[in-house]
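Build the 3D complex.
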Amino acid sequence: MSTIAVDAMGGDSAPEEVVKGAILAKKEGVDVILSGDENLIKSYLGNEKIPVINYPQVISMDDDPARAIRSNKDSSIIGALNLVKEKKADAVFSAGSTGATLIGAISVLGKIKGVTRPTIASVLPGKEKEVILVDSGANLEVKPKVLYQFAIMGSKLSELLFDIENPRIGLINNGEESSKGRELEKSTFKLLKSSQLNFIGNVEGKDFANSKVDVFVTDGFTGNVVLKTLQGVAKLQQDLISKSLKENLFKPLLVPVKNAISPVKSMLNPNSTNGSYLLGVNGLVIIGHGSSNSEAIKNALLFTSRAVEKRFINKFTEVSSEL
Amino acid sequence: MSTIAVDAMGGDSAPEEVVKGAILAKKEGVDVILSGDENLIKSYLGNEKIPVINYPQVISMDDDPARAIRSNKDSSIIGALNLVKEKKADAVFSAGSTGATLIGAISVLGKIKGVTRPTIASVLPGKEKEVILVDSGANLEVKPKVLYQFAIMGSKLSELLFDIENPRIGLINNGEESSKGRELEKSTFKLLKSSQLNFIGNVEGKDFANSKVDVFVTDGFTGNVVLKTLQGVAKLQQDLISKSLKENLFKPLLVPVKNAISPVKSMLNPNSTNGSYLLGVNGLVIIGHGSSNSEAIKNALLFTSRAVEKRFINKFTEVSSEL
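Done.
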């Protein structure tokens, strides 16, 4: 049975939606411990018996993450991370400031030996199966060696999540030719080319529409922009299609058509996707979207619980031998 | 009546598709002159009476643009640019190497006074009306001052294309807060904030789904990744929807539903969109997608012709007073 430490104060609608999500997850058999402002959390818990630890400080999206972690030892994310460090929980989940979760995790749990910069990997929808995007927002500016490590961690994640041997790795660039890119991409291309990884070369955003690679590698700034653009474009197209269907289709047809389109909308909706992995620290840390509602929090906690049961982190830690 | 100088050797399927596209455009009343390998072009022209100038060298996507422009004075793009310089044509169109077109245009036509780095602006689909993305691929790495100039040029383009007063400018970033981003975004934010532009702050890729801004500003690497991701995600979602409709919908319904969705697919299909503007040089230069087929080339030439008729470049050159 897995226990998940939840940063109850993290997220745009925290603690209310986080607490509600935790209650829903508990009903589906996930043990949770909530870290945050005890009084506030209890006001949303009602009669539910979920343990709470009192770490009342809140780190907001506006705060400088490094400074906030240094000066807020009683912040909710630190409380959650401490539970994993003390082996009272198997994993941490936060929908709060990504930067604070990253820096907090490095500070409390420590980096896996050999890892220069821990990173965030997101699981995205793909044509035939899901794909991994790494770094999806942790490290805005990186060196080639670091990008190379992201590729190794992304490859390992893909292996573990999807049982793929030698996942295909692509470097996001502004063209396919090896001469393309900034100095960062040019140098990283060489490192990847001469590595043991199954590096298939440069890829572009248009390759999200085919099945060319299993892992998209890029810096955290570009990765974050890709992730948000994916959400924005999916939503834009859904809205345009909705409008066009309403204008052009005989009304009784709308319902079956909407029902047929609905699973695709969910696939591309951040609230129903699962969360992202913080890779490279000594412990399982899952990051959710800041805009998560209770349903999204519940899904993310179920997802975290499955990762615990698969003994994800033990297997992942082996990656350090390759760094 | 406008005359367009066409780089007949530029594009993945050049010269065949470019020549065919030029023939189609001519039938719709656009005068074109083709620049490239005369013998090859004539073999595709058949009996069509379209003037050809012999600039047989081809610059490929693989070539280093600066070196290629220096050492290929007889390349097709240079021939097309010379026609505008000599006032034998009103605009240049190329679906070839963006880098070579950019550097060639700077070398042959010169930069507009005050412009540090010319840029490429693309017109993208939006929720209520089209939006502009600048830089969409010309300058991979830039300084804040340059990004600020891109915002000014993007603003002017939006004004001219869509008759908007004070277009709303957004800086693409990894979050909305002013503290977000790399040093580039932080410094550019300050420049934009204290400018005369209608700067609404940082925006994200998810803002493609709303109507928050008229102009998205970013560096050319990020912009190119955004553009390609937009194409990839739109295509991915279309394929997923198609599949789901086929599996879940009563067969006779498929045709009317596909017809209703079809205009949205076109909006988000690069082959039917119009081309991008090279901004900041002394002449009208329009860049098409490398993958353009003859239909896309024709559309791009019609689009270029309309820009000539609107006296776009004369109006745009006024922008230099603001730089």
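The first strand of chain A starts at residue 3 and ends at 7.
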